[in-house]
Structures are given as structure tokens and as C-alpha cells.
């Protein structure tokens, strides 16, 4: 069994490579829910859905999230009511949120609903939210405002300086059912190439999860989402610098070193292998920019081999 | 001021004729909410929305409800989750229900939200739900089942025999703000050509409304939805017979006579004028089949003239 801590687009691409190399039924994904939002009264789980849609082969290939070929009739029509529609939910995507919201309203847990959604899409992986509790990533901006993740990421297009990040209510959250067992028994735990501060850190912040991962450190492989100092997608590079870290594979090694014994870094960063090593993290250099499914599959193979789980 | 008790399609067509003859700001519509349903977690008000969409010129002309040119991506995608999707909500239509549901969830009353929706569509009429309370038209079927209106009307396509109708919780409902004042001050009250048992009766069943209408009986004009013994749309004819009434303009006069002093009936039913008269209801014979906007406007003119309010 392989457990993967996952954010959104980068994690989803890695996972689609992984399920080309091992059976989906061997994979347990522990997804970030700190980015969840209630939009137009609907409970939206961007990271979980990005994983589901990507593995189902249904994701919008241009954005990396949402559904391919979706329409936006509902959002267009909502404009009439003067409500904020900067978060564009596609019409077919809305079905997922309608279903989830209705089931949560009927008393189902997020774990249960997520399993139902994954099954409805015909996937074999286990997709677990990090918690069934209500954890929200909050960002304090340099201008003094405090905003939710989606407000920062989508509405403000992460074009504002961040002063600090808070994983609100993480302290009292419990890991979702199955999370701790998956981490305890996994032969390999992967920290997917996701934003370390906004995607991986909220998962690790849930009491029990960070400790469980650290306890298995010799079986934990992180994949750097920073290549040549830049994030492939999103604001990870800028955020790392704003919050006093280094925007490089070495900076990632420093942040994730307490949890991972191995860091996979891109060939472009081969020169940082020594610095990573000096931090007590074993570097593995390979191509990490998943331009094609073949690259993602090879990255999965290298990751599996890192702790002796070659296929 | 003119008050109109309204169901769905027939009422909406009459109202579009009416607002061609008098200013919309002179019209208060009291809409049936017994047909309201919670579908996919969304609060749907079919009759109120049919009135709004029709007066906005946005209604689907083929069905008489829903929005013209709407798409059904969300409903198609919901099929994946195995939930009942027999009530087809269009994607643009969904925006109305999302907005309403979110506002109700935030503590707004149905009256408030309805006024907001009507304003968002640029309409000048006042559209009042009959009540802000939760009244539901329930039907006991001949096979013993008891179902909600939409289950009967849409899912079962009103193709089953009905034994009795109950306006659940009507007894403890209060008229929405403005309803009683509108009825007390109106120069003319119209019972629109809607199903007398499923659209008009639930409104009259709200304590205070039936009494207020009956008190103004000399100013109340009903329009028969039955022409030549048949309902123009829906199951009114079949229901009238199943529940022991007569499926004719005379049967409508008998049902609505306690509330209306005048019944407008179709030229096809001119032969029933005497029977209507004998029931103490003054018959007015004109063309009531609103095939064109011109017919609807003329029907409105005749209705206005019926109580001396000619234009």
C-alpha cells in the first residue's frame, strides 16, 4: 500500500502517473481540505475534486481543475443576482457540489461522501479527506486583511503579499477515518509535488497526521514542487520567500525534512543535491516536470524505487 | 391596484397579458407555494419562477416553465450519482435556486428573496409568495401512496388516480407580509386560470387569505382553466372528476363561487353560462385560450372590465 499526501493539480498529475504503475486499489490518497469553501451555499472541495477528475480522465486539461468541456450557464446567470462569481463553477462540476452538499446536509461525513463520489467516477483508489472536521487555511495579507484560501488564490489571483498562514481549527481536528491506519501501514508515503505551505502543511497540521508521517520518515519520499527556484503552478515560490523560506528544492528539503527522508528534485536542480543532502535528506534527481503521462509514470517509478519498492 | 392569485403557466400567461394593459407596478401577484420542493438540496419555487420568467420574457416557450435556451449539464452530471433527476433543472435556472437557497439559509424570508429575484429580473410587479411558511400540497393516490406535488406532477406525470389532496401545514401558516393588505385594498382580485385544486385552493387554504378573498367577493373575478371540459395544461380535468367535482366551467363556478362573483369562461363554453349563473356567479364569455399575447391582453381587458375597471 502506498499513501500519498496530496494537494491539487501537481498531486493529481503525479497520481495519474502512479496509477499507471501500480494498481489504484493499492493507493490511498490523503487530500488537503484546507482549501475547501462554501460557494453559493455549496460545499466545494477543490483539491479532492481535482484528484478525482484527473484520475477519471475528465479534468479540464487547460486549467488542470474543473471538468473538460464544461459550460458555465449557472455562473453566468448568477451574475444577475449581484453575488460574487469569481469562483467559476462549471455546470457539470456543480453536480458534484450539489451531491456533496445534500449528502453532508443529510448527515453524511465528508469521508463518506468523498468515497461515494470516487466510486461514482469508477475509481479504485481510496481518496480520504485529511479530516472530516472543518479546517480552513486562512492567510493574513501584508495589507492587514485576513482571507480564506480561495479568496487569496482565485479572487486575488495570489497577487498580494502574505504575512502569515493559519490552518484555522486544525488544532482541534481529527484525522478522517482510515488516515492514521494508512500512514501506519504504508510501504511508501509520498508527499506529492504540491505547495508545501498551502497543500502539504495543512494536512500535516491535523493532530496525529504530522506525527504519523514523521514516525515513518524512512519510508517518506517528498517530491519538490519547486523547479529552478520557481513553482510550476501557483504561488509556492513567492509564498516561500514571503514567509522566510528559500524558494528552491533545498528550501523544500528544509521544510519537509522532519517528515521525509528522501526528496525527489528536478534535473534542473541537480546542483542542489549536495545542499539537500547536507540537510539530512537523501536527494534523488530526475525529471519532475510532468508534461506528459510518460514523465508522470517515470516519476512515480523513481519515487517507488526510492524506498526499495521498484516495479 | 390589482391582486392576482396565481399558479404556474396559465397564470403567468394571463399576467403577461395584464401587464400589457396596466402598469406592472399596479399588480400584486400572490403565488402558490404549495408546489415548492427541495431538489438536490435546493429550494425550488416552480410557480413563482414561472411567473417571473414569463414576465421577464425569458421563459422556455415550449414548456411554459424553465428558461429559454437553457442547458442541462448539471442534471446530466448528477445522473452519475444515482440520485433522482426526473425534475430537470436547467443550468441557468439553477442560479435562481442557488441564490434562493443561500439567502434562505442566511435567514432571509421567502418573501424577501422573491422580491430580490423579481428585482434582479427588472420586473415592476410585486410577487408575493402566499406564505413564508412551509406549506406542501400532498396527494394521496388511489394505490395508497402519499406523494408531494412534484412527485405526482413531474415524476408520475399525473398519470395516476388521486384520492385526496392535503395542503400540509396550511392550517398553521400565516399569509406572507403584504398579502392581506393587497387583498383588502385591491380594486380587482383575479383568480387566474390555474388548477383550482392544486394552485388556487392551496392559496385560499392559508388562514386569512380565503377569508380576505371571500370578503371582497364582489370584486373577485375567476377565470376558468377548464375549456370544453378539458384542462388546457396539466391534470385539472382528471383531478376534478377524481375528487367528485365536475370538469367544466360550471364545476369551476361551483368550487370558486364562494370566493368569486364573476367567472370568465371560454366561448366554447357559452352554453354553460346559464348553469354558472344559476350558481350565483355572473358568467362572462370570451376567448380564454391564450395562444397569442393579443388574446392574453384581451382576456385581461375583459377581466378588468368585469368589475368596472375598464381601460
Explain what the structure shows.
The structure is a homodimer of 311-residue chains. In chain A, 38% of the residues lie in helices and 19% in strands. With 311 residues, the first copy, chain A, is of the alpha/beta class. The first copy, chain A, has a domain at 2-39 and 46-52 and 125-134 and 171-306: Rossmann fold, CATH 3.40.50.10680. In chain A, strand 11 (226-227) and strand 12 form a beta hairpin. In chain A, helix 1 (9-18) packs across helix 13 (293-306). The mean pLDDT of chain A is 96. The interface between A and B is medium-sized, with 32 and 32 residues.
Summary of the model, kept short:
Chain A has 311 residues and is of the alpha/beta class.
CATH architecture of the domain at 2-39 and 46-52 and 125-134 and 171-306 in chain A: 3-Layer(aba) Sandwich
Helix proportion of residues of chain A, in percent?
25-40%
Structural class of chain A: alpha/beta
Low-pLDDT ranges of chain A? none
Q: Which oligomeric form is depicted?
A: homodimer
The greatest interface here is:
A-B, 32 and 32 residues
Strand content of chain A: 15-25%
- CATH fold type of the domain at 2-39 and 46-52 and 125-134 and 171-306 in chain A: Rossmann fold
Give the CA-CA distance, first to last residue of chain A. Answer: 13 Å
Number of helices of chain A: 13
Amino acid at each position: 500500500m502506498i499513501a500519498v499526501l496530496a494537494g491539487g493539480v501537481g498531486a493529481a498529475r503525479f497520481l495519474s502517473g502512479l496509477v499507471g504503475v501500480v494498481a489504484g486499489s493499492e493507493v490511498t490518497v490523503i487530500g488537503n481540505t484546507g482549501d475547501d469553501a462554501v460557494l453559493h451555499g455549496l460545499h466545494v472541495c477543490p483539491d479532492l475534486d481535482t484528484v478525482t477528475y484527473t484520475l477519471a480522465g475528465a479534468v479540464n486539461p487547460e486549467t488542470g481543475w474543473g471538468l473538460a468541456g464544461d459550460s458555465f450557464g449557472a455562473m453566468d446567470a448568477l451574475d444577475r443576482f449581484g453575488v460574487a462569481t469569481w469562483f467559476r463553477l462549471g455546470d457539470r462540476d456543480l453536480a458534484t457540489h450539489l451531491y456533496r452538499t445534500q449528502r453532508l446536509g443529510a448527515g453524511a461525513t465528508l469521508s463518506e461522501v468523498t468515497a461515494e463520489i470516487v466510486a461514482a467516477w469508477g475509481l479504485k483508489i481510496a481518496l480520504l479527506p485529511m479530516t472530516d472536521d472543518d479546517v480552513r487555511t486562512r492567510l493574513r495579507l501584508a495589507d492587514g486583511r485576513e482571507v480564506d484560501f480561495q479568496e487569496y488564490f482565485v479572487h486575488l489571483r495570489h497577487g498580494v503579499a502574505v504575512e502569515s498562514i493559519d490552518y484555522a481549527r486544525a488544532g482541534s481536528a481529527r484525522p478522517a477515518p482510515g488516515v492514521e491506519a494508512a500512514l501506519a501501514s504504508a510501504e511508501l508515503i509520498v508527499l506529492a509535488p504540491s505547495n508545501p505551505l498551502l497543500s502539504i502543511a495543512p494536512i500535516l497540521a491535523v493532530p496525529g497526521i504530522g506525527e504519523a508521517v514523521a514516525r515513518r520518515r524512512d519510508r517518506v519520499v517528498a517530491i519538490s514542487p519547486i523547479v529552478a527556484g520557481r513553482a510550476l503552478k501557483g504561488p509556492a515560490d513567492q509564498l516561500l520567500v514571503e514567509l522566510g523560506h528559500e524558494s528552491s528544492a533545498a528550501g523544500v528539503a528544509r521544510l519537509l525534512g522532519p517528515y521525509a527522508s528522501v526528496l525527489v528534485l528536478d534535473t534542473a536542480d541537480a546542483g542542489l543535491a549536495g545542499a539537500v543532502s547536507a540537510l539530512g535528506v537523501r536527494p534523488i534527481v530526475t525529471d519532475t516536470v510532468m508534461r506528459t503521462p510518460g514523465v508522470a509514470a517515470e516519476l512515480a517509478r523513481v519515487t517507488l524505487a526510492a524506498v526499495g519498492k521498484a516495479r
